[in-house]
Amino acid sequence: MLLSKLFIPITKDLPAEAKIKSHQLMLRTGMIRQSSAGIYSWLPLGFKVMKKIEKIVREEQNNIGAQEMLMPTIQPADIWKESGRYDDYGEEMLRISDRQKREMLYGPTNEEQITEIFRSSVKSYKLLPQIFYHIQWKFRDELRPRFGVMRCREFYMKDAYSFDLTENEAVHSYNKMFYAYLKTFQRLGLKSIPMKAETGPIGGDLSHEFIILADTGESKIFADKKIFDIKVEEFKNNESSLKKMRENFSKYYAVTDDKFKKDEFDKNVKKSDQLQTKGIEVGHIFYFGDKYSKPMNCSVDNKDGKKTFVKMGSYGIGVSRLVAAIIEAKYNNEKMKWPISVSPFDVVIIPSINKNDNSNLKKATKLYLELKKNNIDVLLDDIDENLANKFKKHDLLGIPFQIIIGSKSQDDEFEFKEIDGKSKMLNSNNITKELKKYFV
Amino acid sequence: MLLSKLFIPITKDLPAEAKIKSHQLMLRTGMIRQSSAGIYSWLPLGFKVMKKIEKIVREEQNNIGAQEMLMPTIQPADIWKESGRYDDYGEEMLRISDRQKREMLYGPTNEEQITEIFRSSVKSYKLLPQIFYHIQWKFRDELRPRFGVMRCREFYMKDAYSFDLTENEAVHSYNKMFYAYLKTFQRLGLKSIPMKAETGPIGGDLSHEFIILADTGESKIFADKKIFDIKVEEFKNNESSLKKMRENFSKYYAVTDDKFKKDEFDKNVKKSDQLQTKGIEVGHIFYFGDKYSKPMNCSVDNKDGKKTFVKMGSYGIGVSRLVAAIIEAKYNNEKMKWPISVSPFDVVIIPSINKNDNSNLKKATKLYLELKKNNIDVLLDDIDENLANKFKKHDLLGIPFQIIIGSKSQDDEFEFKEIDGKSKMLNSNNITKELKKYFV
Asked: Tell me, what's the pLDDT at B202?
């Protein structure tokens, strides 16, 4: 893609309400544009990052055997009345009346809807265990939407729902999702900590939230640094291994400030291992047994032919929120670097251009076509602007690899660098080879 | 995927309102489930087909240089008041009032929203020409939603918007999209006819709808058969070639019944070339100049520094509707065959199983793992059911290739067939080879 053609409207004057750095960066690099309070359009650059995150989330759901489907955004009020949450949910639920005056709502979550689908078609334990997920837009009518896509009203979320016959099996489904979440955040280049959590309006008796470290995060966290020594890759997707994995995590102290008690922290964690920082919630998982299946009469016949309410869990990851969360974790001192797995482009070519000499642009274009031919997703900064300004701009765009074509370049040798690393001179063949290690 | 684990709740007793065959088949094969009137959940099988269609639509948009973004589903009423459509749109627009009593709506289309984004950031002709698209859920509050996802309320649509400086350039953008649409429908295995159309509530002075042939279609069509002799692949994505392509199409008579005049038809089309059939609209494109840019004050500076209202077009493809449209075109006499490009699975293995002998299931499982290893998306019908019933079921599922493991199979030789073709005996190597021609 040529930068001159990429629709990336960069805001130079930030609006006053853009208070956190992800919101600022997303506006400054034209990733999003506000449509109305708490509702955003995703412009090409932001859209690409979000789609890459979505793909990783999807792959890790598929890896644990979850089946993808898609529920609609607009739900009938009836099912929420059955579960008892229609009145409880309060003003955050966007209530809608259609032309026939039927009570509808824009789904903030989907426990009721998936329970309705399940009960209408599954009658026997034989289809169990089962996990379904979808990645769909949700709406929560926040009183004061703020922080850009971090706390917005219309947001993109992966939510999954597990169905099991027994509590034991349900806990295994829970553990599988716990595992998938750790792997997901790892692939996104994030350090995540699973923390025991309150179940809130979803309900139930077992819950973890997944917090990623970011020193500008919304919640204070207190943890034992040893928790980072647990290696997800050492566990396998089977019952005993996943059980052990979760036990390992629960050994270490890790809480947000609402649960923090200083004496407990000091008692349980060595001074040198005490981590006090901030974090952002990017995932939340719940086990809630028959909280929905019972009032909604969702049962299957067990092996003895006896009707049994299915045991359910639900599991959310904020896909749109993750775009901002990654920025909060990775953007510092006017410099961004996207994790390689979700960067909007693989590499950017930055030629020094001026009106009287377009030889660098010519070289750049040749290299650009060469890289494209090799399926490298390359951006060419073909804009006539001085190099210092270009570098500033690309510090914000955060594309992890740069090829600089300026005074140092000779013939087929170009300055190649990882955005925060040292540059080396490489020819186009070797640049292609280098990039293919990460991409393609 | 094992069929016993696939969530594919097959409805045997069809609801009375399922009157057309796509609606019936989608319910009978568990592709969708109604959530409320005109609103559906997409279950795994339907979801897979829709995603494959979406991918093809996306690729052909990218091929003509359109940039993908994503606008939200909920829009502010303000911009619709600016364009003058807020009152015009009538009750089909789902109007929403949020907790702050702000007037919002669930977008039925996005001309206003994209114009607002464009005008706020593009000030010069230099970014032109430009085409943006998104694939997003829309809502039209149909008075009588019916025919399943063919005429539903919440639907998935690709809509694109072009921005140009002059009418000539805008018509070129229009022609590019015309070309992309023909290629899209071709890749979906459909015969499509572009027809001059009314512009309706979108407005403007140039419009085509793309109709695919299906003898159960909603509109009668009258056309010159010679129109199918035009080969899209003979045209190139450049101005003169695309102009010629559109001229070629306009040479041939092709209208829906609202424009049909028998004497014109007889005068212009040889009897033997007269085609009278039915069709389904799956795409609609519009050129409407400054219909939105003028009232919404969306202008750029031209080369002489003079403010000029941009010339716009909009271009829709009903992605969710296409799932049903393909069924209408391909499903006959209780037999479905998905086009290879969008089939929910590449191939199904159908072993004859009974309680006393699972040797066929064993063979089937071995072959299943072999195919999976080769990245073939294979379904294994591991259900204990007689072969006759299995065949009936797979006639409906419509997976284009079948491997039957029954009395005819010997050692490593299996009956392999395209669903409507003759079977041949092949070993697993040759089956893999055969399938790799189409997939992977």
From this structure: 67
Q: Looking at chain B, which residue has its C-alpha nearest residue A34?
A: B117
Q: Which fold has domain B21-330?
A: BirA Bifunctional Protein; domain 2 (3.30.930)
- Over residues A419-437, mean pLDDT: 95
A383: which 2 tokens?
Answer: 């804009």
Using only the alpha carbons of chain A, give its radius of gyration.
Answer: 24
Interface contact B297, partner A, CB < 8 A: no
- Give A 399-418 residues with CB within 8 A of chain B: none
Contact state of B130 with A33 under an 8 Å Cβ cutoff: no
Gap between the terminal Cα atoms of chain A: 17
CATH number of A347-436: 3.40.50.800
Average pLDDT over residues B14-34: 92
- Give the pLDDT mean for A110-116: 98
* ipTM (interface pTM): 0.96
Domains B21-330 and B347-438 share a fold: no
Looking at the DSSP bridge assignments, the partners of residue B415 are: B404, B425
Q: Establish whether the linkage from the previous residue to B129 is cis, with ω within 30° of 0.
A: yes
CA distance A83 to chain B (A): 16
Domain spans of chain B, in order of start: 21-330, 347-438
User: Is A47 within 8 Å of B33 when comparing Cβ atoms?
Assistant: no
Query: Contact A7/B98, CB-based, under 8 Å?
Result: no
Instruction: Give mean pLDDT, residues B136-159.
Output: 96
In tens, the pLDDT along A211-231 reads 999 888 888 999 999 999 999
H/E segment holding residue A285: strand A274-289
Q: In 3D, which of B69, B393, B228, B292 has the Cα closest to residue A44?
A: B69
Cα-atom radius of gyration of chain B, to the nearest Å?
Answer: 24
Euclidean distance between CA atoms A319 and A137, whole angstroms: 10
The percentage of residues in chain A with a pLDDT greater than 90, rounded to a whole number, is 88
What residues of chain A lie within 8 A of the CB of B73, using their CB?
A: 73, 137, 154
Q: Is B4 on the interface with A (CB under 8 A)?
A: yes
- Compute the distance between CA of residue A379 and CA of residue A358 in angstroms, rounded to an integer: 18
Q: Tell which of A74, A75, A114 to mutate to test the B interface (max B CBs under 10 Å).
A: A74
Q: Is this prediction's pTM over 0.80?
A: yes
Domain B347-438 classification at class level: alpha beta
Q: Tell me whether residues A69 and B43 touch, CB distance under 8 A.
A: yes
Task: State whether residue B75 sits within 8 Å of chain A by CB.
Answer: yes
